[in-house]
Design goal:
Length: 1112
């Protein structure tokens, strides 16, 4: 297999080894440069869909490179390779050889040389045909290559239009925000001053110690910022140590100088930096030293913090660049750029650039030229084969007499072949010129396409550059916008932190108290139920009390998770500090109203305390022994909790009693001072006892929980190890499956590509075959029409010929019936006249008989004419009805038609037989009438005449039967359809009249041909005024004038030649000196044999045979 690359500019197919397809496209271009001298940098490769082959991609990745779907190559240079020009030396040499062959004398060597020359011309015609087919195919490939270029330009145009649309959307959004951007840039210096007045709170100072990287994400891809950073790094590398002068010139120093102008407090802090700190700063980077030194100061503001990395000058430069960029990105420049881009897109969409008008019509004409060339090549082949066959026949015959005519015919055929060859070469030159013109047109259009695509590429680069600049300006403006919103955002963040800390503290305390109470109540309820169920389970009464085993679900018995622990340590004092320093932002520093939330958290606490006091007093009076343990429990539960108003359970009454008792213990009431002291002392003792008990219980619980946690930890580690091992196994299996799937996917992709290429090849082959079949169908239609016309002409001609033959036969029969009687009468009249025996009465009787015979003959002639006209009409209708089916039927259908024709001819013969019988009857009636009219003595010569007519009639019937049998044998053959010919060769022959009629009846008379040795029937033709041979064919055979004497024949009004005339072989003129052409000579027919034939000139293109005497 080969890799095919088609050079569209020149129309040339380049083939390479298939190994090149396994390498990159760049290597393919280098191979083209190495083998064909075409610069690789100027080569552009496309596939049929318009996709361009990229350098790093493998050639086999593209579905192109076959002979039917090659890779299309174009050159971006202005120069075009010149096509190969065919020379015309071969034509001159061939013409010279043909001229030389004309001068050769008639001989076998001349015949051989002419046959070789014809074979040579045939080979040249085949080569020219192959060349023309290749040229036409290359022009079709050029058209496909141009379609690929147009598709590629359309794809590029669509992509460029899409990018231009995105750019327009971005620029329109920029123009809508342009005024706000300008306002931000005008207030940028005021924003910086305001930032310098905002201090960083002490609670935030620890976070401000690190370097400032707030703008790195926006400035990492910024060309200006990166360039400035590189310049700063180069300056830092050049400085071996940071001295006082360099420190004074640093951006931080500039910031400090700017800050000194704003407040005196900052000056004192700046002067507090010692010389030792400056020396330590030289050993680290400038940004780290500056940020740490700024973080150690207590009056650090936001501007100093964001400028700790040297961003102040960058921010100022960024602001200036944004102002310049907004001035550049104006609406006028945008409109001008839009007009230029729309103009180049409009040029790319022009129809005259994409479409080559008339190319399809030209290719159709080239296909017609190719068809004509193919037809002429076939004619050349037939002519060459004919010359070879003639050469073989001449070698076999060894007859020098035919060489002059044969050589003359060969010269004519060679001249025809030379003319055909010249026409073929003219068609080839026309096709080659068409290809050259198409190549020049494509080269000019390709230059136009390259110019348009280069223009789009230039505008695309401009759009990309402007888009990037616009995005960079928007990133810079976003930084400036953040700086503008920084004061408000800063104070809002401080207020939000303080609000969250207040909420989280109150919520955590309330939720903790609530969880402790709920956990204790839930545990107490569970304990009581279990104690009761322990004694009640198994008793027979449990049948009456179902559902005693239900337990209350846990609810809000766990401490809430900690949150807001990473918030900076800010409080109300920080808000008051900022409000005092930034009075214009005091409105944004106000905390929201937190009283409803706080009251919600502490509302139940106040109410519960009052209820506890009252309950404590009541229980102290009623159940003093139970107060101490319950107070201990309640005090332990109330250490860090408060009541809530939302806890309503089944034990709410008990919970309120307990909370009331606890709060009554912890609240001082009005009463006796001694009772208060005793109660306080008792409460403290109870609390101490309860704390010790709870400590022991909590220690045991902690140990149990610790053991459980260790067990769970071990179990978790084991599960984790197992999970990790399973994960590693799964990962390895997944990687293995992934590799297998990738390999299978790649294999399937390769198979898909191969199948796609095969399908495309088959589709193209099918299209080519379809196109070829369509052309063949058109050729077959043309051949069909030509064959129909030819068959119609042939059938009409045969029909006319057959009608003429029938007419001649009927005339012959009429003449035969009339002429022999006249001749016999003459023979019989001679003795009677010499004897002088006639009388007046016999003369009158003879006149009556002649008149009667004349009338009967006229009636018979009229009947024959009517029969002939009817037969002609029926034959014409029959052939007209069979013309159309005959053109499309096969040979079997022709055989059926031939059978029908034979049946029709048989019917006509039957009619003729009936007419003959009728004539026989008429003759018999006439004979009887004559016998009645005349007597035996006076009309004896009439009896002899009737006998002679009867014998002649019998002889004619025998000849008619022989002719009928021979005709049936010849017409049953299928070859009879091909026996007719348009040529009218002249055949002559010498015939001798046979005296023995019995011997002639035993031999067959040839009616289908006139060859040497054939026995033929000669009769006088009134139409041509010549003696002619009776034949059932298109060819007319005339008897030579010198052979008439041997047949005892003579034209009218001419002296009868002597019977001893010798054979004549010299042709005489055909014109006869007969005064009356309607006069019939006596005798007017004869039977003879053809001994020789020759060609002669006549009034029409006809044939005159030479007849000589046979055995007499």
């Amino acid at each position: 297999m080969m890799l095919y690359v088609f050079h569209v500019d020149v129309g040339r197919m380049l083939s390479f080894d298939m190994n090149v397809a396994l390498q990159s496209v760049e290597n393919l271009k280098e191979t083209i440069q190495k083998l064909h001298g075409i610069p690789a940098v100027k080569i552009v490769l496309l596939e049929s869909g318009g996709e361009m082959l990229t350098h790093s991609t493998q050639v086999s990745c593209y579905s192109a490179g076959t002979d039917t779907n090659p890779i299309y190559m174009f050159l971006t240079s202005d120069e075009r390779l010149a096509p190969t020009i065919q020379n015309s030396d071969a034509d001159a040499e061939l013409r010279r050889q043909v001229d030389e062959s004309r001068t050769l004398p008639p001989s076998l060597e001349a015949v051989r040389q002419r046959a070789q020359l014809a074979q040579h011309m045939r080979e040249l015609a085949r080569k020219e045909e192959a060349l023309c087919e290749r040229l036409v195919h290359e022009q079709h490939l050029q058209q496909q290559g141009w379609s690929a270029v147009v598709a590629n330009m359309e794809d590029l145009t669509n992509e460029f239009r899409e990018r231009f649309h995105n750019f327009c959307l971005a620029f329109d959004r920029h123009l809508q925000k342009r005024d706000s951007y300008l306002e931000l840039l005008r207030n940028f210096s005021d924003d910086l001053k305001q930032l310098s007045r905002i201090p960083i709170l002490p609670g935030l100072m620890a976070l401000a110690e690190a370097d400032f990287h707030g703008f790195d994400e926006l400035l990492d891809n910024d060309d200006v910022f990166v360039q400035q950073q590189k310049q700063q790094e180069q300056q830092q590398q050049q400085q071996g140590a940071l001295n006082e002068s360099s420190q004074a010139d640093s951006p931080n120093k500039k910031l400090k100088m700017g800050d000194e102008k704003e407040g005196t407090g900052e000056e004192g802090s700046d002067q507090g930096v010692t010389e030792g700190d400056q020396q330590a700063a030289t050993r680290v980077s400038q940004t780290s030293t500056t940020s740490s030194s700024l973080a150690r100061r207590h009056n650090l503001n936001l501007l100093q913090w964001i400028s700790s990395k040297g961003n102040h000058s960058a921010l100022q430069l960024m602001s200036d660049e944004c102002i310049q960029g907004l001035d550049i990105f104006s609406a006028d420049i945008y409109e001008k750029l839009k007009e230029e881009v729309q103009h180049i897109i409009k040029m790319a969409n022009q129809g005259d650039v994409k479409e080559i008008k008339g190319l399809s019509d030209r290719l159709c004409r080239l296909e017609e030229f190719k068809f004509k060339i193919k037809k002429m090549v076939q004619e050349q082949k037939e002519q060459a084969l004919a010359l070879q066959q003639n050469e073989a026949r001449a070698l076999n015959l060894r007859d020098n007499s035919v060489l002059p005519d044969l050589c003359l015919s060969h010269c004519t055929q060679l001249q025809v072949m030379l003319e055909n060859h010249i026409k073929i070469r003219d068609f080839c030159r026309c096709i080659a010129n068409s290809k050259d013109e198409l190549g020049k047109n494509l080269h000019t259009r390709l230059r136009r396409i390259v110019w348009i695509e280069n223009g789009m590429s230039e505008f695309d680069n401009r759009l990309l550059f402007n888009h990037r600049c616009l995005r960079r300006a928007e990133r810079h403006i976003s930084i400036i916008e953040q700086i503008h919103r920084a004061p408000c955002t800063y104070v809002e963040a401080v207020a939000e932190v303080v609000r969250r800390k207040i909420f989280s503290d109150e919520f955590r305390q309330w939720a903790t108290r609530l969880s402790v109470d709920f956990d204790r109540i839930h545990s107490e309820e569970l304990r009581r139920r279990r104690e009761f169920n322990a004694s009640f389970d198994g008793h027979f009464l449990n049948i009456l009390f179902p559902g005693m085993g239900d337990m209350p679900p846990a609810f809000a018995n766990e401490h809430p998770l900690s949150f807001d622990t990473r918030l900076p340590p800010l409080n109300r004092s920080d808000i008051e500090l900022l409000s005092s320093q930034l009075p214009e932002l005091s409105a944004q520093l106000q905390l929201p109203n937190m009283r409803p939330v706080i009251e919600f958290f502490v509302h139940r606490s106040g109410l519960a305390r009052e209820q506890e006091q009252e309950q404590e007093q009541e229980e102290s009076e009623q159940e003093p022994p139970l107060l101490a343990p319950r107070l201990a429990e309640l005090q332990a539960a109330a250490v860090g909790t408060s009541a809530t108003s939302d806890c309503e359970t089944d034990t709410e009454t008990e919970f309120e009693k307990l909370m009331t008792a606890v709060k009554s213990v912890s609240t001082t009431t009005s009463g006796i001072v001694g009772e208060q002291i005793a109660r306080s002392t008792n409460t403290e003792e109870l609390l101490m006892l309860s704390a010790a008990t709870l400590t022991d219980e909590n220690g045991a619980s902690v140990q149990r929980m610790r053991g459980a946690i260790e067990d769970m930890s071990k179990l978790a580690r084991a599960c984790l190890a197992e999970a990790r091992s399973n994960q590693d196994t799964f990962r390895s299996d997944a990687l293995g499956y992934q590799d297998e799937f990738q390999s299978e996917l790649q294999l399937l992709r390769d198979k898909l590509k191969v199948l796609r290429m095969q399908c495309e090849d088959r589709e193209r082959q099918a299209q080519e075959q379809m196109e070829e079949m369509r052309l063949k169908l058109e050729l077959a239609e043309r051949d069909k029409l030509a064959a129909v016309a030819q068959a119609r002409e042939q059938l009409i001609h045969e029909h006319k010929t057959e009608l003429e033959s029938l007419r001649c036969r009927f005339k012959l029969m009429t003449s035969m019936e009339r002429s022999p009687s006249d001749s016999s009468l003459e023979k019989l009249e001679r003795p009677t006249s010499s004897a002088s025996v006639a009388s007046a009465t016999t003369m009158a009787t003879n006149v009556d008989v002649d008149q009667l015979l004349y009338q009967q003959r006229q009636e018979l002639l009229a009947q024959r004419e009517r029969a002939i006209s009817e037969a002609v009409q029926s034959e014409r209708s029959l052939w007209q009805s069979r013309l159309l089916p005959l053109n499309s039927e096969s040979v079997m259908a022709n055989v059926c038609i031939l059978k029908d024709m034979l049946a029709e001819k048989e019917r006509q013969l039957d009619q003729l037989r009936e007419q003959n019988q009728f004539l026989t009857q008429e003759t018999y009636q006439l004979k009887t009438r004559l016998e009645m009219i005349t007597n035996e003595d006076g009309n004896s010569w009439l009896k002899e005449k009737i006998d002679y007519l009867n014998r002649d009639k019998c002889r004619l019937e025998e000849e008619l039967n022989q002719e009928k049998s021979k005709r049936l044998e010849m017409e049953t053959s299928v070859a009879a359809m091909k026996s007719s010919s348009y040529d009218l060769p002249s055949i002559g022959g010498t015939l001798t009249r046979s005296k023995s009629t019995g011997g002639s009846s035993q031999r067959s008379i040839a009616l289908e041909g006139c060859s040497r040795g054939d026995l033929v029937f000669v009769v006088w033709s009134m139409r041509h005024a010549q003696f002619m041979v009776v034949q059932d064919s298109l060819t007319l055979y005339f008897v030579h004038g010198d052979s008439l004497a041997g047949l005892q024949l003579a034209p009218p009004n001419a002296l009868a030649p002597s019977s001893g005339t010798a054979d004549a072989s010299v042709a005489v003129p055909v014109h006869m000196a007969a005064a009356d052409l309607n006069q019939i000579p006596l005798p007017y027919y004869a039977i003879g044999r053809v001994v020789d034939k020759e060609y002669c000139q006549a009034r029409k293109v006809s044939i005159i045979p030479l007849l000589s005497q046979d055995d007499r």
